[in-house]
Design a protein that fits this description.
Chain A: It comes from Amycolatopsis minnesotensis. The structure holds two protein chains of two kinds. The longest helix of chain A is centred in the first third of the chain and has 25 residues. In chain A, helix 3 packs across helix 9. Chain A contains ten helices and 15 strands. By secondary structure, chain A is of the alpha/beta class. Chain B has one domain. In chain B, helix 2 packs across helix 3. Chain B is elongated and about 110 Å long. The chains are: A alpha/beta, B mainly alpha.
Amino acid sequence: MRTLTTRGTRVTFAALATGIALVAAGCGSAGKPIEPAPVGAAGRPLPANAEVPAKSAGGGGAADASCDTRSTAPTGTSVTAGSTMAKIKSRGQLIAGVDQTTYLFGFRNPTTGELEGFDIDMVKQIAKAIFGTDQGTIRYRAIPSSQRIPVLKNHEVDVVVRTMSITCDRLKDINFSSKYYVAGQRVLVNKNSPAKKLGDLGGKKVCATKSSTSLPRIAAEAAKPVPVAVDNWSDCLVMLQQGQVDAVSTDDVILAGMAAQDPTLQVVGDRFSTENYGIGIPKDQTDMVGFVNSVLDTVRAGPWRDSYNSWLTGKLPPADPPQGEYK
Amino acid sequence: MTSTATRTGSPGGTESPPADSRSGLAGLLDLPAAAVRGIARSAAKTPGRLSVIAVGLVLLSLLTGLVGTIVIGDRKDTINDLIDHREPLAAASQQVYRSLSDADATAASAFLSIGTEPPELRQRYDTDIAQAGAALAKAASDSAGVDDAAAQVAVLSQQLPVYTGVVETARANNRLGYPAGGAYLREASELMRSKILPAAQDLYRIDTERLAEEQDDATAVPWFTTLLVLALVAALVVTQVYLTRRTNRVLNIGLVVATGAVVLALLWGAVAVVVQGVLVGNGADDGSKQVDQLVRARIAALQARTDETLTLVARGEGGAYEKDFMVLASALAKTDGTGGLLGEAKDMTAGQDSAAHVEAAIKDAKAWFAAHGEVRKRDDTGDYNGAVTLAIDPKAEGSAAAAFTRLDGNLVAAIDVGRQAFLDATRGADRALTLLAPGFAVLAVVAAAGVTMGIRERLREYR
């Protein structure tokens, strides 16, 4: 009887233990396997100071008719004593604010290390007129779009030749030469993009530089594209190639330079603005404006076409130098 | 023998407990109480008391031996960890920073150079990236469990491939003569400076702090063990006094042997731990702390060098970089070469093997700052190409590149001396503890055996 009870107890215990083991093994959450590579979304880096979307769509204003955009009449290419040109001459160098990132207009040629382009040709012509040569007489200062007005106001440079449109807004702060090139805003997209004009890019990201005239026009488009602002035009190309924007919209000459660097891109749509490029000169140096306008007159007579041929022919339709309009 | 002694102490007089009435769990719970009652009863008489004392002393000896052996073994592990992990990791994270920063400056230099990229710059960049990758793998191997370090390692290991990708895109565009190359290079540099280098710097800081913490651990006084050993010595002495009074015999060989063993363990342990602590401290003062100072100087120099190059890449819009250079340069050393991180390093290393390297580094810094002044002068007066040559061509007369390379080389030499000093001192600390852990255990067992034999001899006299 006693043996039986003991055996019974043992059996009960065994059953109990088995039950506990089974229940403990079977129930309760085991948690999840450890994630081997806990990475969220990875993305390409952004260019320095890129704003997505643009914090302010303020730009250089449009080429409106609210003011007289004609320049001071040419005053000849002689360097008169006491003039701004004489000061530059005695300094030994013309300080020019330029772009080193915009292919065809102002860019650093990696094979030579020199700055080249249509705008750079203009700077060289001015230096030639002052010094008789452009060798060692120019000090280039590469500036982002947003610094074009400030460097002139602070007299850090003598001229700014950097795809800069003559606008009434800018005329309040600086002087402009007569127009030396006429461009117009268009749109650059991937060849496989369905967009054919800015109006097709509603809700899509469209890139332009800060303080450019292109940025407010993107923001003003009725289809409401999202403006993205960067420091330099080549940053727009980088973002387009990295898939961070859907299009770049600015002057056709700048877009042609980008398309020339990447055959998978194309410029689409019609020109929807007229940009008259002028050379920026500090507000208080009107003598320089007359001098530069004379230089530009000589340029229109011949060198302009040489520059156009070496940089733009084949990438843009043939064009003639724009005639200067003076007050 | 313990049970024998207890039986001798309680000769049958008490009635046996009612075992049948209490059984199972209640009986089990009753056992300790019964034992305590038994011990108390037997302790009332001398033989019983002796047995209790013997058991107590044996237990205390064994406990002391166990704790001491574990504590000493632990400390030896800590010291070995310093040598095998902590210091190499701090060095690895320093290497990650250096390689990446140098890669950034080299990529910018290559961009500035005209025409085909100079093969030595290409080689240098490739080596930098390879070293950064290898050092990162090393640094990552130990970041598990340290969330801060793991987060930095994650940033580094995710962004480094992205960085190299962007640099290669820049290179391809450059080869084609497209200015997009310059834009990609600026983007890569921005990524490096805003994300990658801060992570590398944080990782270095974390690893250096962990090294210092573990050095503190390895020099802390083992209070608990010390107290245990002292208590054991006291207990042995008191027991001997008690026995002398009870038995009128002056010496008990067993207890004397036990006391001798414990005192020997105490002296050996004290000397070894003090020497070990001093050596670990030396490893920190003459080694890792100097290395940290020199590494911070090196990081400042690398950052300034990148600023110098990027000022030229920006070509006129580099005012912010130049300002940054000035700040870093004065943090490194004043223009006359005194004070700053290098001046402090000079004070720290005075009279040591690395002093010559540090002094040479200060001279190089002076030469570099002078060359930088000339670079800025050339650039500011329009001689851009002359400025570039002076900045990046190591063969040019009095070039910034050559002075910087010499400075970096001297800092590396001083860092290597400091690392060796750390290793020598810390290895010495490890050797100071040689055999101490097993020795401590053996001595504790000897003490326990001595106690047992000594007291058993006395107990025999009561039979």
